[in-house]
Amino acid sequence: MFKRIKNRILRYLLIAIYFIIILVCAIQLNFLWLFGYSPTKKDIVMPSVNISTELYTADSVLIGRYFDEDRNPIPFDSIPKSVTNALIATEDVRFYSHNGVDFFGLGSGIISTLKGDKRGASTITQQLAKNLYRTRYNKAGGLLTRLPVAGLVITKFKEWMTAYKLEQRYSKNQILEMYLNTVSFSNNAYGIETAAKRYFSKGANQLNQTEAAVLIGMLKGTTLYNPIRNPENAFVRKNTVLSQMYKGGFLKKEEYDNLVKEKIVLNTNSQDLNAGGDSYLRAAVAKWLEKWSEDNNYDIYTDGLKIYTTINSKLQKHAEEAVAKQMIELQQRLNNTWEGQEPWRDLSGKVIPNFLDNLVKKTPYYAFLSKKYANTPDSINYFLNKKKKIEVYNWKDGSKIEKDMSTMDSLKYYAMMLNAGMMSMDPYSGEIKAWVGGINHQYFKYDHVMQAKRQAGSTFKPFVYLAALESGMSPCDKITDKPVTIKIDKGDSVEIWEPKNADWNFSYREMSLRHAMARSINSVTVQLTDMVTPAKVVDAAHRCGITSKLNPVASVGLGPNDVSVFEMVNGYSTMMNHGERVTPLLVSKIEDHDGNVIATFQAERKQVVDKQDAWLMTYMLRGGMEEPGGTSQGLWEWDLFDKENEIGGKTGTSSEYVDGWYMGVTKDLVTGVWVGCDERSIHFKNSHSGEGSRTALPIFGVYMESVYKDKQLGYTQGKFPSPTVEITKSYKCETPRYSDPEPDQSDSTQVEEPADEGFIGPEEEGAEHPVERNHTEGADSGTSSEGSSSLEEVGSQN
C-alpha cells in the first residue's frame, strides 16, 4: 500500500511510523512472548512499592522491621530542596523540560561516548521506570531480549514507553517523590528516608547540603561511592555532585567553595536504624502472624504495616539485662566445672566417644568437604582441624570476637555454651510483657521461650497439688515423707520404682501439702500422684495451658516431660487468674501504612479451675518463701520484700542438672526462666552449681528487683489478690518448728543413684545451635531419654 505514495521521503516516513506503531503494539502485547513484560495502565496508575513493616512495643517504641526492601516512603514536602536539587543537577538537568525521554541529552551522550567519555543519558523518569517495573530483569524479558543487541534496544524502548506513561500520569514532583522513595542506597536502604537514617541517623528533612550530596552521589555506584566502605571515593563523588549543582545554578560560588571542603561525618548508631535488625521477639511475632497474614492476604514484609505488640519496652530491657548479667557468671561457672576435661558424658559419667566427630557430620561445612574430597578423607580431617580466623560470640560481653580456631574447636566452643529462655506475662489480661528467647539471636536462632521444650523438673509439681485439691484435699492435709514403692505393670512383668528425695534421705515426718510443695519433697509428690492418678495430673496441666504431650505415668509429677517456658508461664498464670485460662497475647493491634486499624487481638478466656482451688494454689506457691526450708528462699538476697510484698514460685532441675528452672509469681506478673545447654549431655556436675535455685532463680531475682526500682513502670510491691469466693477448705496451717534441723532439701533429685556427671540421649528433632559462622550451622541437640519411654524410672530435681 505504500507504493501508492509517490513522494519517496513521505513514503519512507510513513513506513517508519507504521513500523513504530506495530513495534509498540507488539511490545505492549508481548507478541509471541518475544518482548517480555511491559507495565500496563493499571501498573502505572497504582505502582507497586514494597514498604517495610514496623514492629512496636505497647508503649510505641520501635523494636524491629520486616522487609524485603527496607523502605519508609515520605511525601514530597518532607524531602528538602538540597536533595532534589542535587538529584536534578547530577542525573537530569533538563528534568522539567522533557516528557520522560531527553532526546537532546541522548544525542549528546552518544557523541560523548564516541569521543571516549562514557556518559549515561537516562532521565530520572526512565530510572524510575526501571526501579518500579524491573524492566531489565530476566522475568521482564522475552525471547528476543536474550539477543545482545536486540535485548538492549527492546529494553531501552520499553523504558522510554514506560517513562512517557509515567509523565502523562504524574506531575514532575510526584515523579521525584516516587524516585527518591524507591532508589537503593546500598546496605539494604531503599528510599531517601531510610538512607538518611542509615548513614546519618536523622530524617531526610534534616539533611544538610553535604549529606544530601553524599547520598545522591551514591546513585552512580552504591558500592564504589559508599561512604562506609569507600570514604575517599565518596568524598570525591560528593564534590562532583556539588560541582554539578554549581554549574546548574543551584549553588553560589561562595557556597560551593565552602561545601567542597567539608568532610563527611557519618552517624550509623541510630537506635531506630538498629531496631530493624533481627531478634527473638521479631522472629516470634513473625511466626505468630503467619496464619493471620495468610487468612487476610497481607504480607508483613512488603505491605508497610505497623504491628503493636503487648511487650513493655522497659520490662523487656530489664529482662534482657537480667539474663545477660547472670549468664556471664553461669557460663564462667560451667567452664570452670569442666576445665581441662571433656564435658559430654553418658549416664554413667563416661566421655561419649566421637561426640564432636558425630556433631560435625551434621554441618553444611562437612557436607561440602565430603563432596569435594570424597576420595581423600585425610583432606577432610585436615580442613576440619585447620586453624583459621573465626568470628565467634563472646559470652563475656555479648560482642563478636575473632579467634584462631579450627572447625572442631568452634564446635566445642559452641557446644559448651549455656543458653536461657525467659517470659513475663500479665496473668489477668494475658499480655506478654517480656520475651527473651536466648543469649544472642545472631548466633543462636533457636527460641528458648516457644520453640525449645525441656524437662520441667519440679516446676511441674504444682499441677500434682492442684489435682489433689480438686480431688477434695486441702493445703493442710498431711502426708508422711517416707520411702515409696510403686509397682508398674509392664504386661508380662512388674517393675518396681522407688523414687528418692533430692538429698537421698527421708524425714519420716508428717507434713502439710503446702510445706511439702514448698520444700519440693519427691516422696510426697509421688504419693499424691498415685492417689489422684497420673491421668488427673495430666488433665489438670492441660486445662491450665500445657499443650505438649504428657505421658500419664507414675513419675509425671516429677517433671520428666518436655515443655516450653511459654506453656509453663501460661499454666501458672491460670492459677493466678482465679482459675481462668487466658491465651497468652503477643500482638494487640495492626495498622496499615496510613494508620488505619485493620486488626485487633484479644486473649481467649475459659474458666478451667475452680476459683477456690486456684486461689489456694497461689497460697501454696507462696510457701516456697514462707515455709521453713522453702526452695525459693534464695530470693531474700534481693531487695524484693518491702510493704509485705508476697512472691510465690517454684524451682526446678531435671536429672543430672541438665535444666534449671524458676517459675515466679507476683501480684502483677508471672515469669518463667529456663537455663541449660542445647547439648543435653553437657551440664553442671552438682546441685551447688547447677540446680534451678542457683541458675534460673537469680535471673528472676535480678529482674524483679530492677522492675520494682523502676518507679516509672508502676509495678509496686504488695500482697496477692484476695480470694473472690469463700474459702471453705482449711489452709492456715502452721508448720511445726523442729529442734533438730530438717534435712537439707537442695534443689535437685537423683532417682536411681547419685551421679556427678551427665548423659546424652536421642536427638531432638528441630533443635538448632550454631557451630561455626559462615561454615556450619543447624546441629541438632540431644534430648534426655528420660523424657521418652521409661518415665516411671525418672525423677525430677526440686
From TrEMBL:
Query: What segment(s) does the record annotate as region Disordered?
Result: 731-798
Q: Which residues cross the membrane?
A: 12-35
Q: What GO cellular component is one of the record's annotations?
A: outer membrane-bounded periplasmic space
Q: What is its main location?
A: membrane
Which InterPro entries does UniProt cross-reference here?
A: Beta-lactam/transpept-like, Glyco_trans_51, Glycosyltr_51/Transpeptidase, Lysozyme-like_dom_sf, PBP_transglycosylase, PCN-bd_Tpept
Q: Name one Pfam family in it.
A: Transgly
Reaction catalysed by this chain?
Preferential cleavage: (Ac)2-L-Lys-D-Ala-|-D-Ala. Also transpeptidation of peptidyl-alanyl moieties that are N-acyl substituents of D-alanine; [GlcNAc-(1->4)-Mur2Ac(oyl-L-Ala-gamma-D-Glu-L-Lys-D-Ala-D-Ala)](n)-di-trans,octa-cis-undecaprenyl diphosphate + beta-D-GlcNAc-(1->4)-Mur2Ac(oyl-L-Ala-gamma-D-Glu-L-Lys-D-Ala-D-Ala)-di-trans,octa-cis-undecaprenyl diphosphate = [GlcNAc-(1->4)-Mur2Ac(oyl-L-Ala-gamma-D-Glu-L-Lys-D-Ala-D-Ala)](n+1)-di-trans,octa-cis-undecaprenyl diphosphate + di-trans,octa-cis-undecaprenyl diphosphate + H(+)
Name by which UniProt lists this protein: Transglycosylase
